[in-house]
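HOLO CASE FILE
Compound: glutamic acid
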Amino acid sequence: MITRFAPSPTGPLHLGHAYSAMFAHDMAKAASGTFLLRIEDIDGSRARPAWEEQVYNDLRWLGLSWPEPVMRQSERLPIYREALQKLWDQWLLFPCDCSRRDIQEGASAPQEGAPAYGPDGLIYPGTCKSKPRPEAMPDAALRLDMGKAARDVSYLETCPAPQTRKTSSETFVSSIGDVVLARRDMGTSYHLSVVIDDAAQGVTDVVRGADLAEATPIHVLLQKLLDLPTPSYHHHRLIRDGAGRRLAKRDDARAIRKYREEGATPADIRQMVGLPAV
Ligand code: GLU
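Model generated. Tokens follow.
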């Protein structure tokens, strides 16, 4: 068994991250497997070396260990590009230069009915899909043509991600839509990178929060399109604050660092998130 924790170094780790990381670490340990750490730093405008340092520091303090060197997504852009090229060559991608506003306007046009939302926000109204395609894959934002990509999803019925089994081709089109696989400023996207890297690292069990469960069908579909294995997915409950809201990076109040400064021990953190003592 290989599990992983894959934080984006864009802010302090909080109790929710601690839970996710320890959950994945415990699971690998119980099966005499391996726990991996991966730094998801493709968003150069938000990722900071200082946050990355804090990730290592907090996780070590929690008692976690992982093999080195750690995979960092910012070092793998050519690999993501190669996968995009493969999809481009199958006519599954199209360039898109829509702004957020264009998408909003397109999605609320009278003929579209009520705007629908998917895992990445508004479902793309298809504005750029019918434009003539350049010969070579451009250095632009690229979207997956979901109508073509999800034509045959019968394999989902037996895949090891239960939440995707009922996702029909139609659902992919109507409730997920033409997702972005390469952002213009990054040359890749969360969905593409996460799928390629889980496969590259041989991850057998993806452990992550329930907030990412709706991204799982997209990931399973990409695995199919790119001929990659599908791991088992475990989506755990979310750690909430006193008011029942899920924790976000901006919730500095729940930052692990803050608890450390206040004298909490790793055992206290385990107890706070409801994990058994080790
Ligand atoms: N990097 C993602 C995040 O910090 C998690 C990716 C995943 O677990 O699939 O939210």
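CASE NOTES: The chain has a mean pLDDT of 93. The chain has two domains: 2-75+240-273, 77-182.
CLOSED: yes
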